[in-house]
Design goal:
With 107 residues, the protein is mainly alpha-helical. The chain has one domain. Helices cover 54% and strands 11% of the residues. Strands 1-2 form a two-stranded antiparallel sheet. β1 and β2 form a beta hairpin. α1 runs antiparallel to α2. The radius of gyration is 30 Å and the shape is flat. The mean pLDDT is 83.
Amino acid sequence: MTSDAVPTPDPDPRAGSTPNKPSPGKRALRTRAGYTWVSLVVAAIIGIIVLIFILQNLDQVHVSLFFWSFSLPLGVTVLLSVIAGALVMGLVGGWRILQLRRVARRA
């Protein structure tokens, strides 16, 4: 008995048609709204961590800055110091970007 059926070769795994790989039409979209949503969730988690840090560090500390003198909770003092440092670094970076733009316009 002979079989008239022709055996089909196994698909080449290097050909790109694997069953586990989603087709281009069924791929999840990456949009700005999606990235914004993920950023919002990450910011909320960071905010909760910062709030826990502040609530666990409520000891009053005395702060003197130039001619001001006041008392704040330790967690708030550290948070304000970090914010002030970020602002200073942002100003320095912004100033450098402006310098580079001026040089680029002249060239």
